[in-house]
Amino acid sequence: MEHKDRYLQAQRLKYDCLLFDLDDTLYPLSSGIAAACGKNIKDYMVEKLGIEESKITALGNLLYSNYGTTMAGLRAIGYDFDYDEYHSFVHGRLPYENLRPDPVLRHLLMTLPIRKVIFTNADKVHALKCLSRLGLEDCFEGIICFETLNPTHKSTVSDDEDDIEFVGSSADDTVANGHSVANNSNPKIFDIIGHFAEPIPSIELPKTPIICKPSEAAIERALKIANVNPQRTLFFDDSVRNIQAGKCVGLQTVLVGKSQRVKGADYALESIHNIKEALPELWEAEVKSEVARYAGKVAVQASVTA
User: Fold this and answer.
1) Which of 41, 96, 254, 304 is the most buried (most CB within 10 A)?
2) CATH number of the domain that 255 lies in?
3) How many helices (H) and strands (E) does the chain have?
4) Where does the pLDDT of residue 170 fall: very low under 50, low under 70, confident under 90, or very high at 90 and above?
5) Is 222 domain-assigned?
6) What is the reported pLDDT for 264?
7) Residue 122: inside a domain, yes or no?
8) For the whole model, what pTM was predicted?
9) Domain residue limits at 129
């Protein structure tokens, strides 16, 4: 029995799952996708929501810093819009042609003997387009995205949730056109710029109905959907805020796109291509397990025949 326990322990890899952010993590910031996305968000705020162009920069910065994403912030302060329309406008005009197949990264991911899951704030259509352009569409077990975290067909993730990749939903009494129905009888928008310019202690920021990183609730929900133990999961992300939130829920973390570790991050990679150089144990564990497999097999047989 002692030999068998040692065998099983040697067989076990250090991590059960690798959780990867998508944008600016699996491809570099220099692709221009992030810059184009930022411009599209500003255009949506002006063209679709009627926000004064002079307020866009200040408003966008406050929404992003306080709610994780501009979209989540817009919904929090009272703007009512269709989620799918927003994603279509913001992502539909991105220069996806800037993304090229990445055979080096594909080889690295395909040789990793560990579950791999995408965890992004973006919508599923965007995630699939990026993975396809990069040639990585079959490198991951599933995609946890905006729709997964904010399902329109139910208010909470069920205990028997076993489908990591969101596949669709149907509307119910509280949902219409892909977003929660807002109270249109009171179209007043919360003045978040004024709120921070002249704070009133008795007035709190409104909450957002959207769940997204860096919210700890979003990360915990993603872990539940993927059915993974945070202590045995390695989380790759380019955002320091997301990394720090991941640490708060027990994840081991890798900051991508930075050469130096920041507070909270366990590792730092200048590029995702440096993963094998920085984390050789992800591959070495596979070699060790094969060495242990031979020794353990003999031990098990000996205990049976004794």
Assistant:
1) 254
2) 3.40.50.1000
3) 13, 8
4) very low
5) yes
6) 84
7) yes
8) 0.81
9) 12-30+101-151+190-286
Q: Which candidate, 26, 17, 251, places its Cα nearest to that of 117?
A: 17
Hunting for tokens 């993963």 — which residue is that?
Answer: 275
Summary mean pLDDT of the chain: 83
* Residues 134, 115 contacting (CB under 8 angstroms): no
**123 near 145, Cβ under 8 Å?**
yes
Distance (Å) of CA 91 to CA 45, 83, 148, 294: 14, 12, 18, 51
CB 43 within 8 A of CB 70: no
**What was the pLDDT predicted at 144?**
98
Query: Total domain count for the chain?
Result: 1
Q: Identify the residue whose tokens are 């070699």.
A: 287
> What is the phi/psi pair of residue 190, to 5°?
-65, 130
pLDDT-based confidence at residue 284 (cuts at 50, 70, 90): confident
pLDDT at res. 2: 52
> What six digits make up the tokens of 281?
């144990």
68-75: average pLDDT: 98
Alpha-carbon distance of 153 to 158, in angstroms, equals 11
